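batch job 7 of whatever, protein = PhoH family protein
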Amino acid sequence: MPKANETPSKNKNTKTDTKPKVTSSVRVPKPATNGKLKDTERKVFVLDTSVILYDHSAIQNFQEHDVAIPITVLEELDNFKKGNDIKNFEAREFIRFIDKLSAEHKLQEWLPLNGKTKGNFRVIMNESTTLDAVKVFGDKNDHRILNSALQIQQEQPDRKVVLVTKDINLRLKARALNLISEDYETGKIQDVAGLYTGNDTLENVPANIINDLYEKGVSEVEKVMPSPPADNHFFILKSFKNSILTYYNASEKLLERVDKQNAFGIKPRNAEQTFALHALLNPNIKLVSIQGVAGTGKTLLALASALEQRRDYKQIYLARPVVPLSNKDIGYLPGDIKSKLNPYMEPLWDNLKYIQNQFAENSKEFQKIRDMVELEKLMITPLAYIRGRSLSNIIFIVDEAQNLTPHEVKTIISRAGENTKIIFTGDIYQIDTPYLDSQSNGLSYLIDRAKNHPLYAHVTLMKGERSELANLANELL
């Protein structure tokens, strides 16, 4: 499906958005737009509620094509307009936009969208169709949305009508009714297999360069590779006999040796973990993402590095996206906000206890962690209340970031004030929310968009270090 107007790139790690090929002969409703496509080439895209909650500006991202939403979508958005979550913000922003757009017009008429290359917009009021999805599948909102799309198709048989939804099951039902259905792809990473990893291995490096790096700690990048790599990119350099860990210093424009560092009793167990700790402890890198399967040490390394740097920041914030069970919000759980969040935050506390248990109970390090929790120097914070805040002098660790949307990731980073470091950890292949996947989640989006920025570093952890049994699960099951 068409995506936002963006400049295509040949870089395999960069998302490319291209103008769609449209071959159908269509009749365009009035008023016509001043777009590049001819009147005989424009489609009608019908948007589901899930698309609006993912991106409130979605109706602006279909180029010269026309966009419609069923009246049922407006009814559903009304249920989402109150609250502090990002989805509530998205619902409110969309409602405000539609209110402004339709100030002097009727919503059931085609209204021109802003911009010379935009199409038209309308709300579909009629849900009566010859092929009734409610009779086929039952009476629910999803099926009334299907009827709205079928109604447009019936009303304008010469046009290509496409239902756009992030609900996989709704897409399948649409196709069962011979209705074209697609995912909303703006912001989606096209080549997840080629997603930026943050580290590489270079073979057959001259031995004298590796020796020079051991002696001096730095080397000119031109001696090793023909062109500079991405900023803060990590390398394992190998010669016939030797190897060394290095990274490309973005500010100095030099390859620098990476030495193993310990963080509050936690020692890296492989080269990738060494790279991750180096990025986490580097004061010049303000934004770090760590991607890897379960048991690779993502959360543990992030927590240990934050504790190691506790004197440089006023507080350490820990957060995880709350993915409600059985579609029930945390409000259904008993107790205050801390009590409600605790079931979701247990993995963070487990890692904290593991770090604490590296020391004897009577040691100052053991007591320091306890004191930090009691004095709220180290605290859990709900992401729902992050909007509007300014976070200065903190380390902010966001675990399970693959369950965030790109907009949520942007919102979190935009809250950063002076002397703040933000760390995102997660596994892009283990997603718990129904409308995200490995291509559209916020962690993948961040890795793809932020690479090659001097303030950003990313490391992909491949080797599991939790236990042999955990590795068995990841490899064989």
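notes: The mean pLDDT is 85.
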